[in-house]
Amino acid sequence: MGEEKGEMKAKVDQNECAGSEECVRICPQVFEMRGKTSHVYVDEVPKEAEGQCRLARDRCPVSAITIEE
Ligand code: SF4
Fold first, then answer.
1. What local confidence, expressed as pLDDT, does residue 12 receive?
2. CA neighbor of 53 nearest in space, from 13, 12, 4
3. Domain range holding 14?
4. Is any ligand 1 atom within 6 A of the Cβ of residue 12?
5. Residue at 54 is within a domain
6. Does residue 60 lie in a domain region?
7. Number of domains into which the chain is organized
8. What is the predicted pLDDT for the residue at 4?
9. Which protein residue has the closest C-alpha to ligand 1 atom 2?
């Protein structure tokens, strides 16, 4: 309670993802390719990966990544 902890969540819209692998390159701590699309494989984004995760969202060519924080 009141303590700051990593609670950022990321999601890839499977209907939008074009499989460019940009997010996996930028933030492999959170995203991985499964077949032709990227998936988030962690429940919460690790604190130290938050910056990269936001960058991945910003660089996704089809804006398929959403972040909740
Ligand atoms: S950057 Fe966007 S389009 Fe490319 S793999 Fe990641 S979610 Fe999919």
1. 98
2. 12
3. 9-68
4. yes
5. yes
6. yes
7. 1
8. 60
9. 60
3-state secondary structure of 51: helix
Nearest alpha carbon to residue 26 among 2, 5, 50, 42: 50
Helix (H) or strand (E) holding 17: none
Instruction: Report yes or no on 2 lying in a domain.
Output: no
* 29 alpha carbon – ligand 1 mean position (Å): 14
Q: How does pLDDT run across 9-45, given as a tens digit for each residue?
A: 999 999 999 999 999 999 999 999 999 999 999 999 9
Does the beta carbon of 18 lie inside 6 Å of ligand 1? Answer: yes
d(CA 2, CA 34): 36
CA 43 – ligand 1 centroid, Å? 18
Q: What is the CATH number of the domain that holds 50?
A: 3.30.70.20
Whether residue 3 is predicted with pLDDT greater than 80 in this model: the reply is no
